[in-house]
């Protein structure tokens, strides 16, 4: 269940209440007359099954609530109510599969911003991967993958394509197109510094690295793994199963590829630089393609669910 709190002018309260009452899966409706001060008006509260929340939020948006009022959405840890159980049974589909598009757009908008924190995380992850490349450590490579924040703007780009949100697309592209070059440039400088300190050695970089050679040797599996990871990543976001994102992060070699390219470039190794760049591109394209297709499939599925529910209600 999701908990909605709406603030409305007194003359629009009945309209909002009617929308809630017509939504299959909504319950626990309450109206606090005159409780709102900014904006002035009433407060309307309700609980709605997750699988019905997107439809209600869409109707509230069409009614213009965000222009003359406000809508807040929270996910309570526990709801003990027979009415809530009935509402979830009546709502179409399953809550675990539901997509709350407004929530997804808001989350990806925040995660796709080019901020100092984003750049620091991406740079630190790339430097960690550079250390892993030099000492041929799979553990460091996995750790660097987990630290990298790049899935946020990748998910934002997928969401922007499906929702036709140019501002979100621009924010996501900016984060990727600025973030990776900055992280790679700083990692290249880091590699030069570490070499000067005697901690990185070109001979060690050129020596056989069985644990990390896959980073600069892309093949069909590079795209396949990224594609599968993109599906899992988007599903983890839309179903609120954020724990799965850790698995997604350590399954694709975006950050390690960027790191290997930076180190290779610092040593003038053009072969590994090209191979790493191709690996990076394949991973990014695989995630974006899979994420976009997954969201399109979810959009189609829930549209069919709504139509089925509407037909059942009318019969």
TrEMBL record:
Name of this chain's protein: DUF389 domain-containing protein
Recorded superkingdom: Bacteria
Keyword NAD: no
Keyword tags: Membrane, Transmembrane, Transmembrane helix
InterPro entries, per the entry: DUF389
Species per Swiss-Prot/TrEMBL record: Streptomyces triculaminicus
Residue ranges crossing the lipid bilayer per the database entry: 114-135, 141-162, 174-194, 214-237, 244-268, 280-302
């Amino acid at each position: 269940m999701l908990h909605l709190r709406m603030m409305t002018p007194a003359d629009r309260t009945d309209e909002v209440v009617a929308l809630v009452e017509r939504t299959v899966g909504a319950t626990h409706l309450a109206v606090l007359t005159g409780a709102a001060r900014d904006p002035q008006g009433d407060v309307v509260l309700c609980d709605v099954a997750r699988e019905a929340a997107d439809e209600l939020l869409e109707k509230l948006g069409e009614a213009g609530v965000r222009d003359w009022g406000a809508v807040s959405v929270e996910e309570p840890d526990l709801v003990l109510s027979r009415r809530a159980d009935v509402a979830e049974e009546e709502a179409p589909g399953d809550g675990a599969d539901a997509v709350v598009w407004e929530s997804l757009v808001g989350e990806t908008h925040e995660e796709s911003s080019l901020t100092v924190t984003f750049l620091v995380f991406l740079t630190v992850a790339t430097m960690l991967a550079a250390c892993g490349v030099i000492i041929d450590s799979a553990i460091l490579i996995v750790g660097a993958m987990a630290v990298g924040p790049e899935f946020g703007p990748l998910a934002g780009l997928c969401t922007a394509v499906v929702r036709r949100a140019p501002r979100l697309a621009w924010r996501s592209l900016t984060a990727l197109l600025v973030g990776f070059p900055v992280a790679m440039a700083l990692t290249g400088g880091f590699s030069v510094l570490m070499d000067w300190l005697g901690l990185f050695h070109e001979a060690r970089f050129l020596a056989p690295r069985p644990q990390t050679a896959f980073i600069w040797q892309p093949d069909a599996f590079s795209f396949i793994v990224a594609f599968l990871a993109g599906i899992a990543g988007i599903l983890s976001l839309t179903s609120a199963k954020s724990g799965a994102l850790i698995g997604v992060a350590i399954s694709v070699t975006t950050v390690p590829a960027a790191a290997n390219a930076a180190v290779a470039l610092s040593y003038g190794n053009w072969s590994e630089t090209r191979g790493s760049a191709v690996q990076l591109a394949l991973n990014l394209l695989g995630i974006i393609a899979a994420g976009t297709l997954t969201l399109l499939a979810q959009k189609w599925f829930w549209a069919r669910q709504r139509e089925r529910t509407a037909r059942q209600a009318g019969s």
